[in-house]
């Protein structure tokens, strides 16, 4: 029988607010909280990776030993001051953390006047929050004595981040990417190859992200002795949902300290986009123990959740088992996975991390769908009002913020996770808005 | 459940042993008959609905005619992470042909009618969606003996234990070369009918050689339960007579799947495919008889 997790975990002193969510005193040291994670604010998952009825391990027996190894190594690593110091140094000197918290005053005029604070993960090296997870897992790979890393990617953000970390640490790197996506994101394929990674186009199934994950699992089971599967989101079998959340916890930990510093109080709401849900889990985890802070996850509503073309697993899916965990899944009446759709490749995934499923069931987080059109409108609005081009993924959260702001009014304070920058989306936006060849902009 | 459920040594083929014929599934009876013959059982896999529901029944009939004692009827699934390209293609074909769980049960019924024991091999989500208890009841009613669940481990199987027990079905979990002794014990205890030993670390598909890890895994699985646990059958990579013989020398059953699918995929028409499938089953049936001679 597994032993229950110890109730108390070692924490570095001064690492943010305490368990009851009280703010640190103003006279406390001004330095940013330790960038390394801990998960003291949540008792979950349990020893077998369950978040209530969600999560767990629905994986081939052949992978259980490897999953156990990752879980055990992570438990040891996060209690090891040397590991924490090495990761902190990388996040500071390589990624550029802490990321800024930028007040978006002109954008806020379109949000009912509420104060809108952007957590600037777009300013990280490689352009999104993905690097936080990747650096931690690459260090973990080395601790496990493994020399080869595999990963899946949809749009290419996680693949580029993984290839980056492998280049930095001298690890062999193979990225699985759906054939459809390699065509749509040819520039990111070139980028990964430039960084020394091998990119394998996956031509089975729907040839998109879910099939890339299937193929990565197949590789892993055959090469598990030398290889770590550097999973890119808070989904998959235990311990990935907890491991990836812990590595992104730094987002919320910083944001919480920054908003207190800037406004002297906790925000009324925290918002993030949710595909698999890693950036959202990272920021939510630091606020989930603050009952006064409303948490909002915005899923990709595509052409509308009432249509067949969306990627909103919680809003429009049903509980099931997918990619190793019980969670919300887009599936038909027979349990076959349905194709997802979103204008944002990073949200185009037919399931969601199991902790989100649990947070949805408990009501602690409100999950809503944002359509392609609403996201693109927010994408353009932030670009024009703030001079910041967001990733289309993050634009879903920005569209959601406009709704929240209307409800809160001018007294409200909203923190939104700007999870990535939009450089990769300029092609999509140019086509969407008709910006090419002086055709002029279509007026929405 | 300390007796080897394949009947152990000395059980007469099809005979009324002390447990009585009704307490034994068709799978357990088939394994006992093979044991009494002094050979390993031959277990063949085909996805229901491949290449379409009616044709899959004909292919399975040829597998039984060729000498398969047990048929694993695959429930085609959109995301088969344990399968290599051949079975993925077969499952995709079956899904494109519109195969549903109801079709799977129909194929099971036809399989049981041939006299072979019928199992279902399925990833977990389709069962969860169908409802585990209802799935087991309907499978038992169709004449099925049990279910193989490649992505379900005993720790997640509480509801599954109850469902299979209530319907009197065997439940077959997998072990792998990477399984610890503790996990072998856990998995063998949870299994009924047999334990599926994955011969190597990898996905389904034919291989040039049977991995050397298989024999050791079978021995470790057997010794995991002192006094004897369920039978141990070996799958993954077995694709010809000599490989079948090699595995039959130490395992209670030999499982082949991709080789059958490949023959149907390669054939110019269904009749040719069926004929190739029958020959392949005959070849493997000789192999399982060579193994202990």
Write the layout of secondary structure elements.
The complex is a heterodimer of chains A (444) and B (293).
Chain A: E1 50-51, E2 54-55, H1 61-78, H2 81-95, E3 101-103, H3 105-108, E4 115-120, H4 130-143, E5 148-153, H5 157-169, E6 172-178, H6 179-184, H7 186-194, E7 198-202, H8 209-223, E8 227-229, H9 240-263, E9 269-274, H10 278-284, E10 294-302, H11 313-316, E11 318-322, E12 325-329, H12 354-362, E13 365-371, H13 372-386, H14 392-408, E14 413-418, H15 426-433
Parallel strand pairs in A: 4-14, 5-6, 5-8, 6-7, 9-10, 9-14, 10-13
Antiparallel strand pairs in A: 1-2, 3-4, 11-12
Chain B: H1 26-36, E1 41-47, H2 53-66, E2 70-74, H3 85-96, H4 101-113, E3 117-121, H5 124-130, H6 132-141, E4 146-148, H7 158-167, E5 170-172, E6 174-175, H8 181-190, E7 194-198, H9 213-224, E8 231-235, H10 241-248, E9 253-256, H11 258-266, H12 270-290
Parallel strand pairs in B: 1-2, 1-9, 2-3, 3-4, 4-5, 6-7, 7-8, 8-9
Can you walk through the features of this model?
The complex is a heterodimer of chains A (444) and B (293). Chain A has 444 residues and is α/β, with parallel strands linked by helices. Chain A is 40% helix and 16% strand. The longest helix of chain A has 24 residues, at 240-263. Residues 1-41 of chain A have low confidence and may be disordered. Chain B is an alpha/beta fold and 293 residues long. Chain B has a single domain, classed as Aldolase class I (TIM Barrel, Alpha-Beta Barrel). Chain B is 47% helix and 13% strand. Chain B has helices spanning 26-36, 53-66, 85-96, 101-113, 124-130, 132-141, 158-167, 181-190, 213-224, 241-248, 258-266, 270-290, and strands spanning 41-47, 70-74, 117-121, 146-148, 170-172, 174-175, 194-198, 231-235, 253-256. In chain B, strands 5-4-3-2-1-9-8-7-6 form a 9-stranded parallel beta sheet. Chains A and B meet through helix 1, helix 8 and strand 11 of A and helix 3, helix 5 and strand 6 of B.
């Amino acid at each position: 029988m597994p032993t229950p997790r110890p109730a108390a975990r070692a924490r570095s002193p001064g690492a943010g607010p305490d368990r009851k969510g009280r703010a640190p005193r103003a006279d406390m040291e001004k330095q940013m909280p330790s960038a390394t994670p801990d998960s003291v604010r949540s008792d979950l998952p349990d020893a077998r990776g369950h978040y209530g009825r969600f999560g767990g391990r629905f994986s081939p027996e052949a992978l259980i030993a490897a999953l156990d190894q990752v879980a055990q190594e992570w438990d040891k690593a996060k209690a090891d001051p040397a590991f924490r110091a090495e990761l902190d140094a990388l996040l500071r000197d390589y990624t550029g953390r802490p990321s800024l918290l930028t007040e978006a005053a002109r954008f806020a005029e379109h949000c009912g006047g509420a104060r809108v604070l952007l957590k600037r993960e777009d300013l990280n090296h490689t352009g999104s929050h993905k690097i936080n997870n990747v650096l931690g897992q690459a260090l973990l790979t080395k601790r496990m004595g493994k020399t080869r890393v595999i990963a899946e990617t949809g749009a290419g953000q996680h693949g580029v981040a993984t290839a980056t970390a492998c280049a930095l640490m001298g690890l062999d790197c193979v990225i699985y990417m759906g054939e459809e996506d390699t065509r749509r994101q040819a520039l990111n394929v070139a980028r990964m190859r430039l960084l020394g990674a091998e990119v394998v186009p996956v031509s089975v199934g729907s040839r998109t992200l879910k099939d890339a994950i299937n193929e990565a699992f197949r590789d892993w089971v055959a090469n598990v002795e030398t290889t770590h599967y550097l999973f890119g989101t808070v989904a998959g079998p235990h311990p990935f949902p907890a491991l990836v959340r812990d590595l992104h916890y730094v987002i919320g930990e910083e944001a919480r300290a920054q908003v207190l510093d800037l406004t002297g109080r906790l925000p009324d709401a925290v918002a993030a986009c949710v595909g698999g849900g890693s950036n959202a889990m990272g920021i939510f985890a630091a606020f989930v123990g603050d009952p006064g802070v409303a948490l909002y996850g915005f899923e990709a509503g595509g052409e509308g959740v009432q249509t067949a073309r969306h990627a909103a697993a919680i809003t429009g899916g049903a509980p099931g088992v997918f990619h190793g965990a019980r969670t919300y899944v887009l599936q038909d009446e027979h349990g076959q996975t349905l194709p997802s759709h979103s204008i944002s490749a990073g949200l185009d995934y037919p399931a969601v991390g199991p902790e989100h499923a649990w947070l949805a069931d408990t009501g602690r987080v409100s999950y809503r769908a944002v359509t392609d059109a609403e996201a693109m409108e927010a994408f353009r609005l932030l670009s024009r009002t703030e001079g910041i081009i967001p990733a289309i993924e993050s634009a879903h959260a920005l569209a959601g913020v406009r709704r929240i702001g209307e409800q809160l009014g001018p007294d409200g304070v909203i923190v939104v996770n700007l999870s990535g920058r939009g450089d990769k989306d300029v092609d999509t936006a140019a086509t969407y808005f008709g910006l090419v060849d002086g055709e002029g902009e279509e007026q929405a | 459940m300390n007796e080897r459920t394949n009947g152990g040594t000395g059980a007469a083929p099809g005979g009324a042993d002390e447990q009585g014929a009704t307490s034994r599934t068709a799978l357990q009876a088939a394994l006992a008959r093979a044991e009494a013959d002094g050979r390993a059982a031959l277990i063949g896999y085909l996805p229901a609905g491949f290449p379409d529901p009616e044709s899959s029944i004909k292919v399975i009939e040829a597998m039984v005619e060729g000498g398969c004692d047990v048929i694993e009827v695959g429930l085609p699934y959109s995301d088969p992470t344990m399968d290599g390209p051949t079975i993925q293609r077969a499952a995709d074909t079956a899904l494109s042909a519109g195969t549903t769980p109801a079709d799977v049960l129909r194929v099971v019924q036809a399989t049981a009618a041939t006299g072979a024991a019928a199992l279902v091999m399925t990833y977990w989500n389709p069962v969860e969606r169908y409802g585990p208890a209802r799935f087991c009841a309907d499978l038992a009613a169709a004449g099925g003996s049990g279910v193989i669940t490649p992505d379900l481990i005993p720790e997640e199987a509480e509801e599954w234990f109850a469902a299979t027990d209530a319907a009197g079905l065997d439940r077959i979990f997998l072990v792998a070369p990477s399984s610890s002794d503790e996990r072998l014990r856990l998995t063998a205890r949870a299994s009924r009918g047999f334990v599926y030993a994955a011969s190597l670390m990898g996905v389904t598909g034919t291989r040039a050689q049977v991995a050397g890890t298989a024999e050791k895994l079978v021995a470790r699985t057997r010794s995991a339960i002192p006094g004897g646990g369920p039978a141990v059958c070996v799958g993954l990579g077995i694709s010809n007579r000599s490989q079948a013989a090699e595995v039959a020398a130490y395992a209670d059953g030999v499982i082949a799947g991709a080789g059958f699918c490949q023959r149907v995929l390669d054939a110019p028409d269904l009749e040719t495919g069926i004929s190739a499938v029958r020959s392949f089953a005959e070849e493997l049936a000789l192999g399982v008889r060579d193994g202990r001679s």
